[in-house]
Amino acid sequence: KKGPVTIPVVVHVVYRIAAENISQAQVQSQIAALNRDYAAANEDKGDTPACWRGLVTNIGVQFKLANKDPEGKVTDGITRTKTKAASFSSHDEVKFTAKGGADAWPTDQYLNLWVCSLGEGLLGYAQFPGGPAATDGVVILNTAFGTTGTATAPYNLGRTAVHEVGHWLNLNHIWGDTSDCSGTDHVDDTPDQQLPNYGKPAFPHVTCQNGPNGDMFMNYMDYVDDDAMVMFTAGQSARMHATLTGPRKKIGT
Ligand code: ARG
Ligand code: ZN
Ligand code: CA
């Protein structure tokens, strides 16, 4: 697709206790964070080292809370479901009403974002394009969602969802999920990198003979803190747009 693509989003808030039933303002803050970062309108993009500043790319994708539900009725784009589950795993129970979660809205028309408590130390997880329709979408830990309310440092800039939506648009982790430099993210302008980076790394961090500049750890597809990830590249943008004209071509307008 040429020009900005707008993706309708439904946020399924699944909660057991009141604190997990996050506010509309917190939901809206997450949509704003997605729009900020996918437009490269984040003020901290200047933290990108000079050697890569020319790669910082406005993806031209925007997100909008749905204003019509699947039946065509007016909605604020948020569903709220009370559950008995103290937390969910990465096995998709949160995506099914029958399993204590909330069923997806048609996944060819909406990006489904589930927000809940997660076990296993998970911040979130995503399904890549091409998977089963019933589980398509992204799951985010409630305290790593948005920029206000229960969002908690160092995951309070909405970037867990920025990262997970990157997977949903077919981006891989920069290091390719191996630990011996053999993996790839299938993107040429992100350097090969050995492992995920965490926290707030110091530049440069050289691995896999990627000196002198080293790992592009400030990319959204690494594992650093929210305030240390600030950019997508042109190559990542091309890969996301290939998905929007290919397997996800129905969803954008
Ligand atoms: N661990 C998650 C994943 O593998 C995402 C990490 C997001 N990092 C962040 N700073 N919010 O998809
Ligand atoms: Zn990831
Ligand atoms: Ca690469």
UniProtKB/TrEMBL annotation:
GO terms for molecular function: metallopeptidase activity. Signal peptide: none annotated. The keyword Metal-binding applies. Residues 102-244 form the Peptidase M43 pregnancy-associated plasma-A domain. Keywords: Disulfide bond, Hydrolase, Metal-binding, Metalloprotease, Protease, Signal, Zinc. Coiled coil: none annotated. Belongs to the peptidase M43B family. This is Zinc metalloprotease. It comes from Roseateles agri.
